[in-house]
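Structure tokens please, single chain.
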Amino acid sequence: MSRIGRLPIPLDGVEVKIAKGIVSVKGKRGEGSYPLPEGITAKVEGAFLHVGRADDSQDQRRLHGVTRAEVNNRVLGVSKGHSRTLIVQGKGYSAEVKPKAIDMQIGFSHRVVAAIPDGLTVEVKPGQNTFSLIITGNDKHLVGAFASTLYKLRKVEPYNLIGFRYSDQQVKRKAAKSVVT
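Here you go.
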């Protein structure tokens, strides 16, 4: 049995409905749903959701763990939410959150405006020559995709650590170029 797939999903204050092969979850932060692949089943037992499979074929084993992880992400999203933090470092860099966009000055000759997708919220925490962008939402994929889009605007460079980096990213700082005589 799949080590990930057999783990029960705790339903802390989350309402779950399973109908026509679709798992729908509803919590204090919103709603989410996930269609179950063919041969994968889900059932609620007490305060836990269990995901099962029809047989031990390679496809079913693969889908078992993936489905459990996806449903767990939906449950966590509607109960606690998902977040990703980007640290932006650079002299003169700044950002401002507008109603549906982030307006940033990140070292280009022009300001960069990035539209915030529906279902996400962005918070800016300023610092000295740096600021943090905290992206939160119910959908883990959407949070990660938007963080990746912002990261690609100006990836961190290894000499002065200027640019975007994830809060948990380790960047190996390189020594400055030296002249050999």
